[in-house]
Amino acid sequence: MSYSLDFRKRIFELKEKELLTYNEVATRFGIGMSTLMRWSKKLEPQLTRNKPATKIDMEALKKDIVEFPDAYQYERAERFGVSQRGIGKALKRLGISLKKKTLSHPRADEEKKRGVLGTNQEIRG
Length: 125
Fold this sequence. Notes:
Layout lengths: L4 H14 L3 H8 L3 H9 L16 H10 L5 H8 L3 H11 L15 H15 L1
Helix pairs in contact: 5-6
């Protein structure tokens, strides 16, 4: 939760008016000392974060997508050494959404697949 700019200004006006220390203000309003010190340097709330997007190399992720198009996010996360959520966010930044898996999965056994498809077709027919 972010405190309003008006509230922040009133706290510092009261501090000046009653000649209170930072510790007394912090105790009176239940605000941490580090918060008051940060406000004394910059009163306006910070609206954006200046943080690098990710530790995932986006070019390597694109290459991984081409090499393993049907890989799950947890598999990519293991290869990159990051969390599954991190991979999901990186894919979103690349504009890649979820897609259906293909029937020709590289690790799928063709014989088993034909057996399952044949069985399903017999049941329907």
